[in-house]
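ok here's the first one, seq then struct tokens
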Amino acid sequence: MRPGRPGRGRRLQRRTTSCSHRGATPRPSRTPRAPAELRDLWAGKTVRRVNGEGRKVEVGTYPRPGQGALDLWLTCSSDPRGFEQAGALGLHVLTGLLFQQVEGLVPRVRAYLVARR
């Protein structure tokens, strides 16, 4: 942005920004469709988004990724439903042992593997 042109940067940002939190749905309800959208973007397809001015726009990735397939991970902790959801969506799981014991992780991993099949 050049000096002496107040407001120009904000106008440009409203036109080009498609990541808006206005009207955003909670993460658990977005999770099931997010992997498919990410894989489509990775494959060179576009997705429709609403930009900062409220207009629907096609969004894609540039430059094109060099890696053929995209490995997706879902962060899960103590809720077994997160592990099941990751398995059902074909995602990998990232978890930690800060607030859980290895023995408590066994049923969650089992639920993940059952859902992954």
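and now the second one, same deal
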Amino acid sequence: MTPSADFFLAESDFQSAVSACDASPRRGGIPPHDKTPEKALLVSGLVSIGKTRPEIARAIGVAQSTLYAIYFSELGVGSVRRGRPQHVPSDANRALAARMRQAGACKMTIAMALGISQPTLRRAYADELLSKRKGTESE
């Protein structure tokens, strides 16, 4: 059985098909927003006269999320941080973690007692985890 000749693409058809696949498709008809010095000045001016962030976003024609992402310095926020705040160990929690580890508690038990995850325990309480009593294997 021989393959049909019209099954194969001509070289020119193949090249146009490949270039069409390489082009990154955009969703919707809205072009990407470019930050310009004029718009940055406008945002700073609107902030200084007390406009709200939704009003500023409407004035420059962007979504609020775009406003936050692109103009955060003009809005007066230091940076856009997402997610939970980083865990800061207290002296009491450090002492508890060290006592529990010396008593032979496993890392999972210590993490549960402190109300944190095991990766957070390893990151924030590394020194306390090293103070395990002599004669036992590390986990």
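notes on #2: Confidence is low (pLDDT under 50) at residues 134-139. Residues 102 and 132 are 5 Å apart (CA to CA).
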